[in-house]
């Protein structure tokens, strides 16, 4: 059986900026999330897999077709929803979807349009102009456009960016529904909680490299049982404390893991106090992907500072 | 092929929903026709309206073509282009559809200008002559639309493009044979006017109006349109990887 997506040392440079660095991944029939902060190479990866950008080196196949040499076949079996929310606001919902049905060369464009509009729960607003749609509805309309030709692999770049909680939940419910129908979904996001809740497998990407890969449960289990977050003043001195292990510091929050959190808690508090660390608050919780992320890539602040020139290069290339 | 038609359909639908754009595009050429065509006291020709109408028709195509250059650029900036490029439809359909839409939109505008010209006193021609005029205007439209789309894709931002547009549209018009025949121009202007591609189209339309068959200009326009089209496709392929 051919894998839905397979990348081999996929690499992309923008001038001397390395956006994606020898990325090797395989995605089977599942919801796969590429998880990472802004500028970590998520969108660049999606652009390469959707044949919109050539890799500098390395290669990838989508549905068994090579993304550079068989780009046409790749485009035949995928759909791509970019993060820009590009729908024609002067057209109605139905017209927007019908346009894509015809461009995909679907057999009965009219019926198929009605079908996907119904799936995305847009039937009663189908003949209104997009101008009057909310952000969540526009996103669902884009999903409808992507679904008219029943793709094997669906690429979604930040599908819930800028949406409210209810709209996000709805989008994810739809994505789960598509998965049940057998579609492979490749999604990028920087919302850890969404990836945790809705995805089968996640890859955490940082500076163009995969830092951790596995199902959310696996990744969380790799950390120990419980996570202790301590809010302190200043920098943590990083002396080992019995029964807990240090994960990392992000702002004034220091994260530890422990086999048995509730037993380790008083001990940790006492040790920190005795070392002269001012503790403001201590919180004990089950591990989340945020903790996994912290362990895998370190604090989320931009470590190299902000390079204006590099940022411009990236913006220019992305258009 | 069906991709081209669909892309054209999308643009026409969008255009028809913006009434201001449709009407405002007609104001300038109509004003030229009425205020210059009817009011200018010229002595070098009998019916000045008949003389200036071909110039105004070609100017309408020029303005329509140049302003159309931004369409593909905005599709690119707003993310539509990436969506279209990821479709199984041949990618060149996007470009060809755009060029044909810009040309078609220009032809609709020139038709309205043509009607106004006849209403205010231009000589009525035979259907065959009008057919020939449309062929000339179509070729000229493709030439300008392909040119402006290429420049816009190349410049890649709206401000530079509108500066470029302002910079070339008026000089192109004034250095053409739109307003006066070559023999009343100062010699330096006549030299420039004979090289100006606008003049080829204007002279061809004028030739048709006086009963001629401008095979030379038509074939020249065809060759130029094809050349620019090839350049356009090359640039398009380059910017879309």
- H/E series of chain B, N to C? HHHHHHHHHH
Overall pLDDT of chain B, averaged? 90
Give the neighbour order of strands across the main sheet of chain A.
6-7-8-3-9-10
Number of helices of chain B: 10
Write the CATH fold name of the largest domain in chain A. Rossmann fold
Structural class by sheet pairing and helices of chain B: mainly alpha
Structural class of chain A: alpha/beta
Domain tally of chain B: 1
Major beta sheet summary of chain A? 6 strands, mixed
- N-to-C span of chain A: 36 Å
Structural shape of chain B: globular
Question: Could you name the key traits of this structure?
Answer:
heterodimer; A: 319 residues; alpha/beta; Rossmann fold; Alpha-Beta Plaits; four-stranded antiparallel beta sheet; 11 helices; B: 241 residues; mainly alpha
Compact summary:
The complex is a heterodimer of chains A (319) and B (241). Chain A is of the alpha/beta class and 319 residues long.
Layout of helices and strands, plus pairs?
The complex is a heterodimer of chains A (319) and B (241).
Chain A: E1 5-14, E2 17-27, E3 31-35, H1 42-49, E4 57-62, E5 65-66, H2 71-77, E6 78-81, H3 93-104, H4 109-119, H5 135-147, E7 153-157, H6 165-180, E8 184-189, H7 192-198, E9 201-206, E10 209-214, H8 216-222, E11 226-232, E12 244-250, E13 253-258, H9 261-274, E14 279-285, H10 289-297, H11 308-318
Helix pairs in contact in A: 3-4, 3-5, 4-5, 5-6
Chain B: H1 2-17, H2 19-36, H3 48-77, H4 80-85, H5 92-119, H6 127-155, H7 158-174, H8 187-195, H9 197-209, H10 215-239
Helix pairs in contact in B: 1-5, 2-3, 2-5, 3-5, 3-6, 3-7, 3-9, 5-6, 6-9, 6-10, 9-10
